């Protein structure tokens, strides 16, 4: 292993990111509190705060009396949420979601457009560029304050080259250099990541006190995948494609899968599989929607209406789905020993009323370390746009969060 050192500027940049991260996650902190929580000297904190104040990223927000006894009141420092922005784009097979996110993680503006159904990536790229332009126009933000554009795309991706590589639910997308195309079209720096990874980054960016927690984000879109944060680190794997759970077998009697197994997640838990099973059971009219993302989406909505009406066959199907998902999550949790599971994605809120109650107890019964610690399961607090919010968080995370690897000399 090659050991690399750090030089003064890279340490300075890292310390500044640590201070900003502390201010961002608190409602207000004084310089004294910052020195205490970061372990940096008072002088270093003071210098960093002067730079952040100069840049308009933080502001002085009044004075608070010293916590212990008499003494000079302390000036509280607070993040300026409107000082920087990032644009997030979620490329989903059925819908394009755009958000403009402030540095404080608040959604300033958002919009959705149907994903062009023709197998025409160039048309989708043009639409994305036009809509980003429109979003910035209507929101009226100063473009100089936009740090960049993040794109969350279905995997697999070539992370190094910023290329979308043959995603199973986007017909016609063969090695599309999406990152560079959007950079060229908008003039902004662009980052591209998998949608599941973006969702995990969104959760981490919005946590008040990350505290080294490890979690898996189960992303329920047209496909299923997990985004992973272990300790403080987002896990991307060697090629940026970690988190593919599609071929975990969860039902030994399930349908055959292209991988040669039976009852994999990909053929027994996805919305397409759910709709196909409902059609086979006569719960939905057989329309054989197959790969068309929008019709699967609509059929899923019809299915949850049946569940809401109390249809016994539909409820039993959703119960089986909860069990299968819990089995897949158990493999992830047992392998990585995470503390929490967060579930979200465009399909989640419709299915949550039927899956949310069953998954935690089913999962708990399958965990090897259940006697040692509890694994909490909860829906995301970030809503259906978590992919797009995550895409914007990729930009903020890369530009502003403390990245230990930034210390390494190139
Ligand atoms: Zn399989």
TrEMBL record:
<dbReference type="InterPro" id="IPR036390">
    <property type="entry name" value="WH_DNA-bd_sf"/>
</dbReference>
<dbReference type="InterPro" id="IPR036388">
    <property type="entry name" value="WH-like_DNA-bd_sf"/>
</dbReference>
<protein>
    <submittedName>
        <fullName>ROK family transcriptional regulator</fullName>
    </submittedName>
</protein>
<dbReference type="InterPro" id="IPR000600">
    <property type="entry name" value="ROK"/>
</dbReference>
<dbReference type="InterPro" id="IPR000835">
    <property type="entry name" value="HTH_MarR-typ"/>
</dbReference>
<dbReference type="Pfam" id="PF12802">
    <property type="entry name" value="MarR_2"/>
</dbReference>
<dbReference type="InterPro" id="IPR043129">
    <property type="entry name" value="ATPase_NBD"/>
</dbReference>
<dbReference type="InterPro" id="IPR001387">
    <property type="entry name" value="Cro/C1-type_HTH"/>
</dbReference>
<comment type="similarity">
    <text>Belongs to the ROK (NagC/XylR) family.</text>
</comment>
<dbReference type="InterPro" id="IPR049874">
    <property type="entry name" value="ROK_cs"/>
</dbReference>
<dbReference type="Pfam" id="PF00480">
    <property type="entry name" value="ROK"/>
</dbReference>
<feature type="domain" description="HTH marR-type">
    <location>
        <begin position="15"/>
        <end position="60"/>
    </location>
</feature>
């Amino acid at each position: 292993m090659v050991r690399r050192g750090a030089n003064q500027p890279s340490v300075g940049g890292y310390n500044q990111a640590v201070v900003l991260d502390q201010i961002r996650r608190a409602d207000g902190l004084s310089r004294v509190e910052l020195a205490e929580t970061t372990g940096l000297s008072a002088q270093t904190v003071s210098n960093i705060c002067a730079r952040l104040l100069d840049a308009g990223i933080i502001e002085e927000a009044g004075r608070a009396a010293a916590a212990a006894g008499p003494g000079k009141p302390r000036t509280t420092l607070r993040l300026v949420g409107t000082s920087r922005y990032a644009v997030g784009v979620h490329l989903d097979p059925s819908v394009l979601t755009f958000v403009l996110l402030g540095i404080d993680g608040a959604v300033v503006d958002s919009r959705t457009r149907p994903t062009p159904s023709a197998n025409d990536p160039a048309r989708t790229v043009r639409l994305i560029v036009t809509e980003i332009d429109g979003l910035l126009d209507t929101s009226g933000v100063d473009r100089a304050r936009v740090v960049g554009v993040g794109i969350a795309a279905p995997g697999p991706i070539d992370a190094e080259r910023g290329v979308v590589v043959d995603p199973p639910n986007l017909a016609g997308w063969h090695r599309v250099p999406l990152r560079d195309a959007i950079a060229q079209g908008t003039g902004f720096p662009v980052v591209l990541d998998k949608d599941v990874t973006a969702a995990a980054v969104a959760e981490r960016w919005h946590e008040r006190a990350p505290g080294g927690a490890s979690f898996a984000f189960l992303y329920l879109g047209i496909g299923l995948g997990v985004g992973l944060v272990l300790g403080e680190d987002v896990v991307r794997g060697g090629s940026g494609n970690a988190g593919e759970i599609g071929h975990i077998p969860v039902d030994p009697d399930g349908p055959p899968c292209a991988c040669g197994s039976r009852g994999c997640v990909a053929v027994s838990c996805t919305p397409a599989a759910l709709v196909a099973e409902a059609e086979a059971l006569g719960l939905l009219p057989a329309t054989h929607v197959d790969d068309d993302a929008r019709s699967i989406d609509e059929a899923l909505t019809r299915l949850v209406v049946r569940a809401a009406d109390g249809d016994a066959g539909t409820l039993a199907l959703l119960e089986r789905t909860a069990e299968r998902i819990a089995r897949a999550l158990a493999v992830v949790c047992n392998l990585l020993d995470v503390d929490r599971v967060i579930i979200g994605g465009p399909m989640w809120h419709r299915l949550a009323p039927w899956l949310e109650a069953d998954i935690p107890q089913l999962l708990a019964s399958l965990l090897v370390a259940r006697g040692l610690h509890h694994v909490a399961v909860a829906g995301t607090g970030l809503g259906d746009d978590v992919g797009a919010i995550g895409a914007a968080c990729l930009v903020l995370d890369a530009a502003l969060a403390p990245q230990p690897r930034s210390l390494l000399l190139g």
